[in-house]
Design a protein that fits this description.
2 helices, eight-stranded antiparallel barrel
Length: about 220
Amino acid sequence: MTKTIKIYTKLLLLFSLIYLIGCSKDDDVSPEEEPVTEEVRIGFELVNIISPDSILVWTNEDILTQEQFDSIQLPTTWRKNEPREGMPNFARFLRSPNASQDGDFTTAEHFGYNWLFNAQIVEMDVSLPGNDQGLLAGRYIAKFHEVTFDAGRTLSVLISPDGEEYILISRDANRTTDIPIIPDDWQIEERLITEELTLELPNPTLNIRAENNQDSWQGPIE
């Protein structure tokens, strides 16, 4: 199997990014009103394979159903990313990876729908310390990505053997387990934040996924 075919296979479980959402809260809800439940928005992504280390990620601008996404027919240099659940309460891309200033975005119509160029994978198969069993997958992603978590949230933080920390950004919407399997030398900490937290992820971002359930931590962060 050639390197390119292996890359295509891995892209079926690609990082992602991530179509992240914000949820508003109303503190003045009367006892008679029904409680507001937090809605999880599912984002859809297409990846355009230019080369093994240059892969463009497009996120949907049009509102799509799962059936519409499934019906898209792609040529061999395109793949579908699995639907993702965003963990932040709010997130935004500040610009497309090829833009020179914030607010500049590349948009295009692909396969009958509108898409926004939000990220570019620039390195696959990043070596991770203590990952001899291949429980984690690492890749570098060029993007301008800001995420916000509300006060009172409990965040999942992945800690490498070197002490670098990565925050959980997205999860596979179709995962069969909520429990990621990680190497013995890595840790996961659950941290309660008492104040709103806004982070701009580094560019490029190291995206680390658990292979068993595709939980996606990104960073490193401070």
